[in-house]
Hints:
Elements: H1 2-30, H2 33-63, H3 69-74, H4 81-86, H5 92-113, H6 122-143, H7 169-184, H8 186-198, H9 204-235, H10 245-270, H11 274-297, H12 312-332, H13 349-381, H14 389-409, H15 420-443, H16 450-479, H17 483-493, H18 495-515, E1 521-528, E2 532-535, E3 538-550, E4 553-564, E5 569-573, E6 576-580, E7 591-595, E8 597-600, E9 604-614, E10 619-628, H19 631-648
Antiparallel strand pairs: 1-10, 2-3, 3-4, 4-5, 4-6, 6-7, 8-9, 9-10
Amino acid sequence: MTPVLGSISLSLALGVAFISILLFSLFLKKSDYRFFIAGWRATVVVSALTILATLILLYELLLSNFDISYVAHYTSLETPTFYKITALWAGQSGSLLFWLFILSVYTLIVLYQYRNSYSKLMPWIIIVLVFVQIFFLILVNIVENPFMPTDADFVVINGNGLNPLLQNLTMAIHPPTLYLGYVGFTIPFAFAIAALVTKETGSVWIRSIRRWTLIAWLFQSGGIILGGWWAYQELGWGGYWAWDPVENASFMPWLTGTAFLHSIIIQEKKGLLKTWNMVLILVTFTLCIFGTFLTRSGVMSSVHAFAVSNLGPIFIVFIVIILVICIYLIISRLPYLKSEKRIESFTSRESGFLLNNVIFITICFAVFWGTIFPVLSEAVSGDKITVGAPFFNRVNIPIGLMLLFFTGVGPLLAWRRTSKDAFIRNFSIPIISGIAIFIVCLIFGIRNTTLISFPLTAFVFTAILIEFQRGINSRVTRFDESFLKALQTLIARNRSRYGGYIAHLGIVFMFIGFSGQAFDTELEFALKKGDSKIFDGYSFELVSIDPVERPNHIAWIAGINVWNLEKHLVTTLYPEKRVYFHLDPNPEKRQPHSELDIHTTIYKDIYSIFSGVDIEKQIAYLKIMINRLVYWVWFGGYVLIIGTMISLWPAKEY
């Protein structure tokens, strides 16, 4: 009975959503406030029914009700309870319902947060939100119903279980975080459409959505970083970014969203870039839907993607509808999007922001083209062409280094125009620090792109520190504060500015980690128990191979002592070779999986993979990688998140 209630909830939600649109249409036509109240309440009902359906599916997953096809496919009796919860977004239909669940929660927040505000914008904001809800409600009602009964003429006593790659704490957190980012961009999109329809294209809608955009961007950033961490910890190839189509799908809206966050500062302060901002947020939301399409349509092969389905054409139609509406509104409202002023000088901070944005969009276009070109090529010529990491690296590394440079340039430029004296005064120390690091790199024989990236990180790091130093010195001089007190007050009084600088520092640290890939090494070898292998300044000694049986798998654990050349024990690594469903009589259901072990320092990671085992001969087949500076990627991610949270934190009254 409970699964039926879930299906009924989704069906009712779809019907009430159409009623909500009708009520708001009547309000806009007749200006009768009773229609607005009725539409508002109908939207609350739509969101509440969607949330109820999601909770019902979660309950069935925890209950292991294998009469539901989704539950049978993504859980089993042996699946730990925690991973039964994460199975909610592990499959196609469940993830679509989860997408809709987050949108419904966001919609309820908007409804109650702005119930007494923006009387002219609100009907259109709610219409856009319900329009997006209707699309996903159609998917989960008609195409991918998560409550579909199991298609079997016998009683299913156990399910397939969750993919071993997904039985990982990071993977449990990564999809919800990324979804919160994807779905979060729906709110600023709705405000933008409402502003265009009502011709209220001033700064009101920008101020309204700045915090929403920052929240969505924060979750999108966190989701991408967690995805990289999961790939590094779980997939066993030693990297964290492979330019996979689904990775690219999450990266593209992040790029345009970042550009939007920068340029709305210009519109708020100077009344510039109105058209640019409107286009950016519309494109960002469209790319979020496009990314959802890539993940679920089956047009791309990816370890992150869901199974092949018939969702692709429906998503394409929805994307086309969005694009047609957006293009029409932008063209028809161009007279209302004219900026009050113009950029006065190439050496102004406004110009620096604009150049930054152009670089973001250039990277986004390069990623988009590289991602979609194989599909277009196969559709036109029938030939399957692969565009891999070498293309993306060759195109995007130079552009990325240019972006890093302008990250440091921006804070050093003045608003309107930077005088010659100010230019020399502001740029001297950062340029000197960059040159100094360049010379050090030459001395140590560092070449290739790292010869550019390390000096650039020094330049940007110094430029940001100078901004903090100036503010701190000013407070110390004027108010006789201590260094720490001045720093605390400086950030508290202007959270947006200095939180942004801290986020930029995070990007600098991440670039240091990216640069370390140029020095990575790896070796695959077989090692008998008691023997050792020397590689890249370390000796790897296999001391044990121990079998351990756990509730849903059996594991062979290799104990590897790692010694340096001075015969000091550095660490002991314990990578595992697992077989899930090892007790299943059907060999095809048994799932082998390698669980890594990594020893991390700020300089390098010793990354171990247990790829195979010969129990009789006590031989382990291993792959060892020495990955340089990876720590700084994750540390930079933490700093980026902290800086964004500071920007989001409500300003303190003084």
